[in-house]
Amino acid sequence: MPKRSLLAVLTVVVLAALAAPVTLSPPSAKYCTPIAFRDRVVGVGYQAVVRAAPGCKKPVKVRKENTRTGSVIGEPNVIPVGEVQRVWLFTHRLRYTLDDRTYQRLEVR
User: Fold this and answer.
1) Per DSSP, which regions of 8-91 are E strands?
2) Could you say which residues form the signal peptide (predicted)?
């Protein structure tokens, strides 16, 4: 088989593979990724508005931690889809979980 026809066949195979529909299994996460925005800013801290990312169909689970010690402040908050929660942050940071085991830092925009 000449090199050009082999290259043409490989190109067609690769393009066909890319065009084939891909079925993804639904994510196994219990919670959705949140988004947070600054609302009110005062001299010593700010109020964050936390909600589920657009298109989410699962609730969000967020907890507040002390920035200096890393200790958890109160119980984690579960925010239902479509609702917004306001959280005051002074010497705290927000972390969220998708699976109830590991927490990741939530950046407030």
Assistant:
1) 34-42, 45-52, 60-66, 72-79, 85-89
2) 1-19
Burial class (CB in 10 A: 0-12, 13-18, 19+), 80: exposed
What is the distance between the alpha carbons of residues 80 and 43, in angstroms, rounded to a whole number?
A: 31
pLDDT at residue 87 greater than cutoff 70: yes
Q: What is the pLDDT of residues 7-65, one digit of tens each?
A: 666 565 544 544 444 332 345 789 999 999 999 999 899 999 999 999 899 999 999 99
Which whole-number Å values give the CA distances from 20 to 13, 14, 17, 24, 31, in the listed order? 11, 10, 5, 13, 30
Token pair of 61 as six digits: 């689970």
Question: Model pTM greater than 0.85?
Answer: no
